[in-house]
């Protein structure tokens, strides 16, 4: 049926992401501008929300920025252009064409945020090409956002307890779980420390942190362990950072 095909397709997609994950560049946190990283990650988060972009585009944009900053010494003024170019590339890669932010919208956003920045097509195109060359024209870079929906399939089961009581509606509780998992997912964007974990582990930790926060037991199920390939012990360091 449709659900089986959808789940099967998601499994194949996630397996592909796992393979790509092994080839991701190593993040060293060496950027001279690393103290400004949180500001620019937040800027991209706000801008992507303003443009109604999907989580995968948002997370890819921040990841591109992180790796680029890690490799190059970029001035603060350049970082604004780099950040927006990262968002444009990510949206072109993850979204439909009509969802890609237009130059006028980007400049209006910059004006509203008092960024003292006027973007031009020429400057953005030049920066996009520089970014693409830096990543060897490969934007197939999985982020936690590429895994989260797959893991949410098993986020709640009929045998789970909530505050010691049986769950009356798995469907309703899955909706709650989805909300909190995505909140933790977005929170993970704000700190570069999460780049020390694999993206798939961060996504699994978002589900685990949500189960802990919602006082569900057990905190991690056999089904989740089989689906994510992570045991509870693997996730604890990342979950503690999320809940800390």
From TrEMBL:
Gene3D superfamilies, per database record: Cyclin-like
List all membrane-crossing ranges: none
Which SMART domains does the record associate with it? CYCLIN, Cyclin_C
Outline the extent of the Cyclin C-terminal domain.
Answer: 142-244
Q: Which InterPro entries match?
A: Cyclin, Cyclin-like_dom, Cyclin-like_sf, Cyclin_C-dom, Cyclin_N
Q: Which UniProt keywords apply?
A: Cyclin
Cell membrane as UniProt keyword? no
Q: What residue stretches are annotated with the Cyclin-like domain?
A: 42-133, 150-244
Q: Which family does it belong to?
A: Belongs to the cyclin family. Cyclin J subfamily.
What this protein is called in its record is Cyclin-J-like protein
| This protein's encoding gene | CCNJL
């Amino acid at each position: 049926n449709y659900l089986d095909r959808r789940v099967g397709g998601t499994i194949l997609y996630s397996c592909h992401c796992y393979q790509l994950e092994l080839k991701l560049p190593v993040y060293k946190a060496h950027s001279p501008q690393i103290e400004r990283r949180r500001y620019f990650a937040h800027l991209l988060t706000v801008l992507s929300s303003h443009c109604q972009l999907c989580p995968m585009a948002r997370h890819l944009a921040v990841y591109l920025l992180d790796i680029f900053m890690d490799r190059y010494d970029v001035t603060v003024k350049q970082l604004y252009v780099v950040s927006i170019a990262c968002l444009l590339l990510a949206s072109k890669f993850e979204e439909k064409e009509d969802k890609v932010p237009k130059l006028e919208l980007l400049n209006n956003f910059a004006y509203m945020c008092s960024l003292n920045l006027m973007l031009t097509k020429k400057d953005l195109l030049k920066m996009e090409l520089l970014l693409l060359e830096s990543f060897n024209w490969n934007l197939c870079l999985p982020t936690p956002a590429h895994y989260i929906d797959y893991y949410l399939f098993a986020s709640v089961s009929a045998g789970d307890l909530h505050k010691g009581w049986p769950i009356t509606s798995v469907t309703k509780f899955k909706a709650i779980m989805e909300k909190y998992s995505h909140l933790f997912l977005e929170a993970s964007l704000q700190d570069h420390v999460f780049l020390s974990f694999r993206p798939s582990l961060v996504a699994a930790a978002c589900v685990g942190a949500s189960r802990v926060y919602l006082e569900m037991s057990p905190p991690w199920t056999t089904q989740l362990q089989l689906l994510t390939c992570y045991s509870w012990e693997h996730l604890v360091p990342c979950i503690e950072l999320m809940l800390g």
